[in-house]
Amino acid sequence: QVQVVESGGGLVQPGGSLRLSCVASGSIFSINAMGWYRQAPGKQRELVARVVSGSDAKYADSVKARFTISRDNAKNTVYLQMNSLKPEDTAVYYCNVDARTYSQILITVWGKGTLVTVSS
After folding, report:
1. Count of alpha carbons within 13 Å of 84, Cβ hemisphere only?
2. Are 48 and 57 in contact (CB under 8 A)?
3. Sign of dihedral through CA atoms 109, 110, 112, 118?
4. Which of 8, 39, 66, 117 has a CB 3.0–4.6 Å from the CB of 20, allowing a cystine?
5. pLDDT tens string for the chain (120 positions)?
6. Residue 40: C-alpha distances to residues 15, 62, 88, 94 (Å)
7. Would you give the distance in Å from CA 45 to the centre of its chain?
């Protein structure tokens, strides 16, 4: 089994910064991609940023130049540095991992989410 756990959410004022972390653990042979999605109240879940092994990161237009995704492959960890936060960034942020297990099974795993609230 593979588990994904996010951390780092919280309350921040507009213009502030937060750093989210996501750690994948368990029967992981390799990780193909790691990413962040978010879901605001009453809205569908949307891609925020994603990085595929060997490729450049991709970002939603709404977060480009403000958010940065990075991976630590040795730790099976992905980070999301969020700067210049806006109230519209308020959402539950979910980590998503595409991995291959030691049994050579391709899986997609979601974390339970971490709440980010941007408010004064």
Report:
1. 7
2. no
3. positive
4. 8
5. 899 999 999 999 999 999 999 999 999 999 999 999 999 999 999 999 999 988 899 999 999 999 999 999 999 999 999 999 999 999 999 999 999 999 999 999 999 999 999 999
6. 19, 14, 8, 11
7. 12
Contact, 18 vs 116, CB < 8 A? yes
Q: How many CA atoms lie within 13 A of 77 on its CB side?
A: 11
For residue 23, the tally of other CB atoms under 10 A from its CB is 17
**Structural tokens at position 111:** 């974390």
Which residue reads 């990085």 in tokens? 51
Residue 19: which of 119, 97, 114 has the closest Cα?
114
Determine if residue 63 is left, alpha or beta; phi over 0 gives left, psi from -120 to 50 gives alpha, anything else beta: alpha
- The set of long-range contacts for 39-43, using a CB threshold of 8 Å and a minimum separation of 24, is 39/91, 39/92, 39/94, 39/113, 40/88, 40/90, 40/91, 40/92, 41/91, 43/91
